[in-house]
Task: inverse folding
């Protein structure tokens, strides 16, 4: 297992290195330079030169890159021109909000999608199968922003923005308000945080729910046709035990879908965060792009891509636990 882990880590490093290089070049290769983009076309040459000196953008590109690697490794991501705060501080504020929303959506999608796919695979061609497939098709087809607006109209009594009511507060320890409220023993704040989380989590969960349901159905149907399943049934093994063993072997593609969707939700919950005014990473990066806040954009790109790579690395490692054949063959199915 150690060799397998080391191999996967080595495969992830070039991807992370490529992300860092791209984030560095995106800012430096801006037409006219980043200083002119920040200050606008009417900026005086003196102001442009002053901003270039302040950020080191007037130095040779290799020197800028070395300095960029050094400061990024130390967690010094510069100051946001949009908020006036250090970018690292902004990320510490907004990233936990996205994590909380993404995890809530993924848990909801898994709790509904896996049983729906399981029921559909055990009754192929019958009403549970048709209901699950129609529901998954609807979930994939409806745009998230449209569904969010519909949910706000259908449930006007539910909070429509933010993470807490203006009259509620809780000590921020982890940034995950549900966990912070539970640690503080504040039932009122916990309930308020849950109410604010319900609608955005439901809107964000629709696409992964549909994908999980469809993948669970197709993977389990294929596994139930395997020879060992037919042999187990012929020997009189109880149907629930047959399904249980088949389900574990069918989990590898399902886990792939789960991992990809966690990465996408952490990286791309922009529309949901915008509709529900959720102060997360996606909304922060979009606002930074619109404000031409290149320090924030650069850091947001690195964090988003880094999280996506790490989530997929965790998924790769889970394959070896779910199916030892993958681990023993060095990662080749």
Result:
């Amino acid at each position: 297992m150690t060799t397998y882990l080391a191999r996967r880590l080595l495969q992830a490093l070039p991807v992370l290195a490529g992300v860092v290089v791209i984030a560095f070049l995106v800012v430096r290769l801006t037409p006219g330079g980043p200083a002119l983009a920040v200050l606008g076309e009417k900026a005086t040459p003196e102001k442009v030169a002053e901003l270039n000196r302040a950020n080191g953008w007037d130095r040779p590109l290799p020197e800028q890159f070395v300095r960029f690697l050094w400061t990024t490794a130390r967690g010094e991501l510069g100051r946001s021109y949009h908020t006036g705060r250090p970018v690292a501080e902004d990320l510490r504020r907004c990233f936990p909000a996205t994590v909380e929303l993404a995890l809530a959506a993924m848990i909801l999608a898994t709790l509904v999608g896996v049983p729906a796919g399981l029921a559909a695979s055990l009754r192929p061609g019958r009403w549970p199968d048709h209901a699950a497939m129609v529901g998954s098709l609807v979930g994939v087809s409806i745009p998230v922003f449209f569904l969010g607006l519909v949910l706000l109209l259908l449930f006007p009594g539910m909070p429509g923005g933010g993470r807490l009511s203006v009259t509620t507060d809780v000590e921020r320890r982890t940034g995950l308000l549900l966990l912070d409220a539970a640690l503080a023993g504040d039932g009122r704040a916990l309930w308020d945080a849950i109410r604010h989380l319900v609608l955005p989590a439901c809107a964000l969960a629709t696409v992964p729910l549909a994908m999980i349901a469809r993948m669970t159905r197709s993977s389990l149907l294929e596994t139930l046709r395997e020879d060992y399943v037919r042999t187990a049934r012929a020997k009189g093994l109880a149907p629930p035990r047959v399904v249980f063993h088949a389900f574990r072997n069918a989990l590898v593609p399902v886990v792939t879908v789960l991992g990809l969707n966690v990465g996408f939700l952490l990286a791309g919950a922009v529309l949901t965060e915008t509709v529900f005014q959720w102060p997360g990473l996606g909304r922060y990066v979009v606002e930074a792009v619109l404000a031409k806040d290149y320090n924030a954009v650069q850091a947001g790109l690195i964090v988003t891509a880094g999280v996506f790579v790490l989530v997929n690395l965790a998924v790769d490692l889970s394959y070896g636990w779910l199916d030892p054949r993958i681990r023993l063959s060095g990662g080749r199915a």
Q: What stands out?
A: The chain is about 75% helix and 0% strand. The mean pLDDT is 82.
